[in-house]
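Exercise 7. Predict the structure of Tripartite tricarboxylate transporter substrate binding protein from Brachybacterium saurashtrense.
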Amino acid sequence: MAPSEQEDPPRSPSTPTRRRALSIGFGVLAVPVIGAAAYQSIRDGSSGTDVRSNLTLVAPAAAGGGWDAFQRELQQAMRAHSLVGNVQVVNVPGAGGTIAIGNVAQQNRPNMLMVGGTGQIAAQIQFGTESQIEDVTPIARVVEEFAMITVPADSPHQDLDSLVEAWQEDPAHLAWTGGGSFDQLVMTDLALAAGVDPGETTYIPSDGGGEAIQALLNGTAQATAGGFADMLPQVEAGRLRGLGIVAPERLEGVDLPALPELGYDVTLTNWRALFAPPITTDEEIAELEALVEEATATPEWKDAVQRYSWREVPLGHDELVDYIESETERIAALFEEIRG
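Solution. The predicted structure, encoded as tokens:
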């Protein structure tokens, strides 16, 4: 099961908070962490500091989250086929992944890859962080993960239309929960498609997918748009009921409809891409792209894709730059709807 990235609860972007001050402070402290790990990686590597000799994979969250799982699976694929002389994973948690952005942006060597994506863009908009995804160099988009609209097993709602009808009648009474900013974005997108005002909806933020599941099970919330890999085991165990998958089409082997076939044009995905420091040259970008392509073609990586229910959506540097720009605009528009 792939744990969700953990993010802070929402706040008004115009209101300074102690969390913001702490995040900036932690960002300063985290620079030596990456630097020390990079030094150890170089010292233990076969030779040199190029990307094929030594590589640091940065997970912008604590161990056990979705970003961490991605990087450790990538590390395993690289090690299994000796694609890099020495490859290490470093965790730099905080502020929805934006502390790691700030630290990678300050590095003066190219042999570093941070995983990021939808969650970081959501966090930088939601919390008004100084660090932005544009501060680092996009290398390649790799996979995306889908959300599942889920309710408790004893919920009166047997299908999505039933849930939406109750939601339309009393948005404040039907409480949603989620394990991070991305889950709230999906809920907002569904609300707009269903003609519900997101600003009138009761949303209870949870600290990760596990806490969101507990909120459903104890009756605190009535629905979630949680990560597919988090929710599927609970559905299979009979604790929760899946009503639909937030994906363009049905997933192979999953007996749940995709939202578009139910009449709701909601396809926002939790995509994950790799980023390098801003000093990375065109030649080094090409070398890192080639390395990612080789690693994601291995049997070990293919097995991880299946285990975590990811979908491979490869995209190179040039296309990824444009994609990030469009995704940032799309996510910013959804947050405007949340704020009303």
